[in-house]
Amino acid sequence: MASRGKQREIAQRLGVHAEAGEWCSIDKIPQPPADVLEDAGTSRLRPGRLRPLGMVGAVLAVPFMPLLMLLTLLSNVEDAVKRSLATKDEKERFRVQDEDDKRRDAIIAEQGLDRVFDGDWHGNAGQFLLRWYSHSTHHQRLVLATQDGIVLAAPPQRVTVGREKHMEIVARLPATEATLVDPFSGEFDTRAVLIRFRDGSWLRVETEEPRSDLHTYLLRQPLPDS
Torsion angle, CA of 46/51/57/59, rounded to 10 degrees? Predict the structure, then answer.
């Protein structure tokens, strides 16, 4: 995640006055129906391949995977031990946390937020998703909130390092067409942000860290009309 100063520097270089911004990614794009692909023409549905340097990094990381899995297991065991030895007040906090997690999961299931978009390929979000990697083959986007709408920037091609150096604007969405929304309205720590289009369709992006600068910005905005 870039610092706020770095974000402002990037925005200025792009000629954008940004209120907030974060690097974001999306889930795997599902395979569209044949008729949708035919109407869309040539649509790239996957990011570009890793360059040799990135592939070397991925290979070098493989031996550390068992260690990461072990650390995750130990963390889960530690959490279980803490719960078993918790005081009355701590158990109450755990209970509240568990209830919050259940409510969050219920909202995710109810609104389908475990999907990358609302599912309507003919909606504005679905059509925009079809062009996502045509704009840039990089796997991330710098999502900038501006007074006039949303600006997405990225390197034209996927890069392993130096994403800011190679970045350019790849898409603009005026405020009359789309807005950014925290699907949980700040109630839960989350990396999810929705790009919600005027026809009600939406696309989910994920920030690099929960409760990002973008989420903080959205909390200061009026609630969108339902």
Answer: 70
Surface-to-core class of residue 110, CB atoms within 10 Å of its CB (0-12 exposed, 13-18 middle, 19+ buried)? exposed
State CA 199 to chain mean position distance: 21
How far apart CA 103 and CA 112 sit, in angstroms, is 14
Q: Which residues sit opposite 163 in a β-bridge? A: none
73 within 8 A of 163, measured Cβ to Cβ: no
pLDDT digits (tens, 9 = 90+) for 126-173: 999 999 999 999 999 999 999 999 999 999 999 988 898 889 999 999
Query: What kind and span of H or E run contains 173?
Result: strand 168-174
Global pTM value:
0.77
If you write DSSP's letter for every residue of 67-132 in order, what string do you get?
Answer: HHHHHHHHHHHHHHHHHHT--HHHHHHHHHHHHHHHHHHHHHHHHTTTSSB-S-TTSHHHHHHHTH
Kindly tell me the burial class for residue 10, based on how many C-beta atoms sit within 10 Å of its own C-beta (0-12, 13-18, 19 or more): buried
The sign of the CA dihedral 36, 41, 42, 44 is negative
Query: Given the structure tokens 């706020």, which residue do they identify?
Result: 4
Q: Other C-beta atoms within 10 Å of 67: how many?
A: 9
Choose among 4, 47, 70: nearest CA to 217.
4
